[in-house]
Amino acid sequence: MILINDNGAPLKAKIEINASGIVLHSRSGTDRSRDYRKALELLLSRLDIAGVGYEIYVDSHPVQSIPLADRRLIFSRNVPVATRFNEIVSAMNHGTNSHGAWRRLLIEVPGSSPDKLRAVVRAAEEAPIIDRLPASHLRRVTPSHIHRAVERLLDGGDAPNFAPSRDYDVLTDDGNPLAPKKVFGLALEEALGIEAFPAHFSAGWGQISFELLEEAGLWIVPKKGAAARPKARRSVVESALSRFLPTEEEQVWIEGNPKIVVHLKRERHPGLAKRKRDEFVAKHGRLFCEDCGLDPSERYGEEAGPACIEVHHHRTFVAQMHAGHESVTDDLKCLCANCHRVLHRKLALGI
Q: How confident is the model over 161-197, as pLDDT tens digits?
């Protein structure tokens, strides 16, 4: 257990509370119980405030076979806790070669149960130490794990061990923003059969979690003030371009984010754009931009105006959920040329 100071901060000093009383572990090395002094002074202050009487005994392992009465420390009771601490340290080292060691202590509080003592000194359970998982463990997360995590969150579920997104969002096929660490955390729990915590992995550009989220078809976008997507390596861009003949403008987008090639290929699906436009006109009676509402026919006329409306493949996530997915018109949106290009640029930049 640990103590929480009056400002709500945990002290780096280990304590135990049992039927015998309060055990304060010794100070040793550079990190073990480095807040020993603060902890002991806080214990004494809180016992004083509660009006609880106590005795203090040296409790180091070498002396535990000595009768308790012979290990009792003598110190002044009606002096400030800082003075009391110095007297206790002097007493615990009396007769030894050391004059300043901070040893393990037992604070005996007759008539007080462990539950009462925990309440009096405001002790808290020590948070478990969580190590970063190796890359081999993180890579056990598959697209299927990620898709199911997304579905759980969209259905109202949560990943309570993870905070809401602060720097980045992942966008689903319909543009719903989710916290990347919540999505990956849930996927990791299913993949490894563990309870996942933020310390298990890192989030950010170049991290395995982001890599796997994007491989599963999610778009990652930074929030205001967060780092933008880093520029892709030339070899990655060239590899993407080797399988696709882009326009000059599309090449700029691809250099910003090579993954957009898959998206652009879907938008060139033979006949699909025409079918989408035909269905859209049949439903609405005209073509207009689904983002800004522009009706180009009003400005450019019925013959030329519709040329301003392009087809955008917006269901990237769904399209990558199943191998061999065939695009359908519900995967598409009608956008004016301006909105379409701005959206592609945002996808490339990750904003």
A: 898 888 999 987 667 899 999 999 999 999 999 989 8
Closest by CA position to 181, among listed 194, 156, 200, 195 = 200
H helical segments located in 167-207: 180-192
Give, for 56, the enclosing helix (H) or strand (E): strand 55-58
Q: Are 103 and 46 in contact (CB under 8 A)?
A: no
Question: Do 322 and 342 contact (CB within 8 A), yes or no?
Answer: no
Residue tagged 């989408």 (tokens): 276
Give helix 36-49 / helix 81-92 axis angle, nearest 10°: 120
Q: What string of H, E and C letters represents the secondary structure of 282-295? A: HHHCCCCCCCCCCC
DSSP 289-312: -TTT---HHHHHHHHHGGGGEEEE
The whole-number pLDDT of residue 35 equals 94
Model pLDDT for residues 317-334, shown as the tens digit of each residue: 433 433 334 445 566 789
The residue behind tokens 């065939």 is 326
Long-range pairs of 293-298 with CB within 8 A, sequence gap ≥ 24: 294/336, 294/338, 294/339, 296/336
Question: Quick count: other Cβ atoms within 10 Å of Cβ 337?
Answer: 14
Tell me which residue of 161, 153, 228 sits closest to 183, measured CA to CA: 153
Structure tokens at 257: 């984010």
Q: Which pair of tokens denotes residue 195?
A: 């309870």
By CB atoms closer than 10 A (0-12, 13-18, 19+), residue 335 is buried
* Lookup: tokens for 301: 């006329």
With b for 16 or more beta-carbon neighbours within 10 A and e for fewer, the 49-59 pattern comes to eeebebebbbb
- Supply 8's token pair: 């709500």
Contact assessment for residue 35 and residue 13, using Cβ atoms and an 8 Å cutoff: yes
Predicted model pTM: 0.46
Coil, strand or helix at 221: strand
Q: Could you report the per-residue pLDDT of 127-157, keeping only the tens digit for each?
A: 666 789 999 999 999 999 999 999 999 999 9
Q: What are 70's two structure tokens?
A: 């012979």
Q: What is the DSSP letter of 77?
A: S
